[in-house]
Specification:
- The complex is a heterodimer of chains A (278) and B (294).
- Chain A has 278 residues and is an alpha/beta fold.
- Chain A has helices at 49-56, 82-91, 100-103, 110-122, 126-139, 145-149, 158-171, 188-205, 216-222, 240-245, 250-258, 262-271, and strands at residues 5-15, 26-34, 38-42, 65-72, 75-76, 93-96, 176-180, 208-213, 225-230, 233-239.
- Chain A is 42% helix and 23% strand.
- In chain A, a hairpin with a 2-residue loop joins strand 9 (225-230) and strand 10.
- With 294 residues, chain B is of the alpha/beta class.
- Helix content of chain B is 32%, strand content 26%.
- Chain B contains nine helices and twelve strands.
- Chain B has helices spanning 49-56, 79-86, 106-115, 122-135, 152-164, 182-199, 210-216, 234-239, 244-252, and strands at residues 7-18, 21-31, 38-42, 64-69, 72-73, 89-92, 170-174, 202-207, 219-224, 227-233, 278-283, 286-290.
- In chain B, the strands form two sheets. Chain B has an eight-stranded mixed sheet, sandwiched between helices. A four-stranded antiparallel sheet of chain B has the order 2-1-4-5, covered by helices on one side.
- The longest helix of chain B has 18 residues, at 182-199.
- Classes of the chains: A alpha/beta (278), B alpha/beta (294).
């Protein structure tokens, strides 16, 4: 774990209802994220993991009220207006979402979408921005960046779209990436490639990654630290090798128990007295 | 008594016309799942697994090949007779939010499936619906409620009740648990298994998730680019995968106790398959697609 934290979250609570006493979407969450580490927020739907990551970028819906303290690179974001949040998003903190199809504009070429952010944040000329976009695509393992840049999103597979989004994010050289279920919509062989890429970005470029996921297997393979969330709270947090091998909380134990190895899954089938014993 | 295949597909192909271009989704699929058997089809997006599922329930017609339901050929029947025969094949879809009609009560939409079978007395239908709801673990009085009043897992239970309503022999479940939380997945898979035992149903379970297949399926066919590249008893295919694609697929599944290196996953090179390639039996009931163009 790196020495100093880049993102600090203290006692974050988010409330959508506005009523006192109603359950909160996020309820007193605290964590740190440093550069060069992957922290996984793991939980099932409704656990508050996505709302937590959106809070960091002040991207919550209007109706939401949040309390607590969030600082990014030493700056308290409560003091930041919309304009200065836009400067933080992308250039300091990159974002990757679950559904690569909806995160891209269908009527613009990949080149146009990738250079837009570069020109906005880095104030680059069109040629320079295109060169950086091209380099970023090569960086994420796309062998023919020129062909991809000339295409529209619908011409690309889901896996390539997600690689393009990651490339667009890292082209801005952010210190930290927020990745919300980045591989959930992808095929398992493509998922393996994307997870490997995230680990690579962490170790090669020192990017810090907040990985939001429901998949404990993904956590085991990629994250350095993990926070297990349920009902808006962090139930258990620690280094992955500790939490996954010696879970303390019953919910963490249940989550681990529900992740069957293929051999265990086969055993469940046999125990169910299938009429076709093999 | 030798088990008879309830559904038998022989050399099914499917070609779609897309913008003047031809897209071959299926290149000769032959399977014959048995009564009481859960037959898995695993593959990634674009493998053709869902297209095959839609053909198996009559939502699409094959471009060539033959399809038999309980020994009777159905792909060349006139539309009206075909529809009747395909009542024997029902489907459960991935997304329980969009596969139910939001404007009809649960009882009405399950009841319609019984009505379609020729039962015309709604009092009797209502009784049958109540029984079905109890069978899938819901209360009888759920019949008067609307889909939005239920959680994702409960809706998938409703979808199962709806599929069972016309007393099918074959149920095709296309990714039935992939939109559900893991804790709910196990419940739905258990429900599918118990319902099957009671009705001696034949399931065709389509999934991208090897652990779902492992948990439920007796046999599995691995599909890649419109072909079956490997087929056999689930434990044998998972335990001793033979085709490089199957090995890649199994290796990619995230697991506890393994760390990603960051240097790219190691994957085996895949052979190219021509139309003359055949499935070769390598052990009892375990087949692998062999490339003739070595």
């Amino acid at each position: 774990m790196a020495s100093s934290s880049y993102i600090e979250v203290r006692d974050l609570s988010v409330d959508f209802s506005g009523e006192n006493g109603a359950p909160k979407a996020v309820d007193g969450v605290s964590f740190d994220l440093a550069r060069g580490e992957i922290l996984a927020l793991v939980g099932e739907s409704g656990s508050g993991k996505t709302v937590t990551s959106l809070s960091l970028m002040k991207l919550l819906p209007e109706a939401a009220r949040w309390t607590g303290h969030i600082s990014i690179d030493g700056v308290d974001i409560a003091t930041k207006d919309r304009r200065s949040m836009e400067d933080i998003r992308g250039s300091k903190v990159g974002m990757i979402f679950q559904e690569p199809a909806t995160s891209l504009n269908p009527v613009l070429t990949i080149a146009r979408q990738m250079t837009e952010g570069l020109r906005r944040h880095k104030l680059l000329s069109a040629t320079k921005a295109a060169a950086m976009a091209r380099a970023a695509l090569l960086d994420v393992g796309i062998a023919d960046p020129d062909r991809i840049m000339a295409q529209f999103p619908h011409q690309l597979s889901g896996g390539i779209r997600q690689l393009v989004l990651i490339a667009a994010a890292i082209a801005l050289q952010p210190d930290v990436l927020l990745a919300d279920e980045p591989t959930t919509a992808l095929d398992v062989t493509v998922q393996a490639q994307v997870l490997d890429l995230l680990v690579n970005l962490k170790s090669r470029m020192g990017v810090g990654i907040l990985l939001v996921t429901h998949d404990i297997g993904v956590v085991a393979e990629t994250a350095d630290r993990v926070a297990v969330m349920r009902d808006g709270r962090i139930l258990e947090t620690g280094f992955v090798e500790d939490v996954l091998t010696a879970p303390q909380h019953d919910y963490t134990k249940a989550l681990l128990a529900s992740h069957l190895t293929l051999q265990q899954a086969l055993a469940v089938r046999s125990a169910g007295n299938s009429r076709f014993p093999r | 008594m030798t088990p008879v295949p309830v559904l038998s597909a022989s050399s099914i192909t499917k070609v779609f016309q897309a913008g003047g271009k031809q897209l071959t989704a299926l290149r000769g699929i032959s399977i014959a799942p048995l009564a009481g058997e859960t037959f898995g089809i695993i593959g990634e997006s674009g493998s053709g697994k869902s297209t095959f599922g839609r053909i198996a329930v009559g939502l699409e017609m094959p471009s060539s090949g033959e399809l038999y339901i309980e020994g009777e050929r159905v792909d060349d029947l006139p539309a009206s007779l075909r529809r009747k025969k395909f009542l024997r094949c029902q489907m459960i879809f991935q997304d329980p939010y969009s596969s139910l009609n939001p404007r009809l009560t649960i009882g009405k939409q399950i009841g319609e499936a019984i009505y379609a079978q020729g039962v015309l007395d709604w009092r009797q239908i209502r009784g049958d619906v109540g029984e079905l709801l109890e069978k899938v673990g819901l209360r009888r009085d759920s019949a008067d409620r609307y889909p939005h009043e239920f959680s994702g897992g409960q809706r998938q239970r409703i979808a199962i009740a709806r599929a069972l309503a016309p007393s099918p022999r074959i149920v095709v479940a296309d990714e039935p648990v992939s939109s559900l939380d893991v804790s709910i997945q196990a419940q739905i898979l258990d429900l599918l298994a118990s319902v099957q035992n009671e009705h001696l149903l034949c399931y065709i379970l389509i999934s991208h998730d090897m652990s779902v297949i492992a948990r439920l399926c007796d046999r599995v066919a691995v599909m890649h680019r419109g072909r079956i590249v490997e087929l056999g008893p689930t434990s044998s295919v998972i335990g001793t995968p033979q085709h490089p694609y199957t090995r890649n697929l199994l290796d990619a599944v995230p697991r506890l106790g393994r760390r990603r290196s960051g240097h790219g996953p190691t994957t085996a090179a895949l052979p190219t398959h021509g139309d003359d390639d055949n499935l070769i039996e390598i052990s009892s009931g375990h087949f692998v697609l062999q490339s003739t163009a070595m």
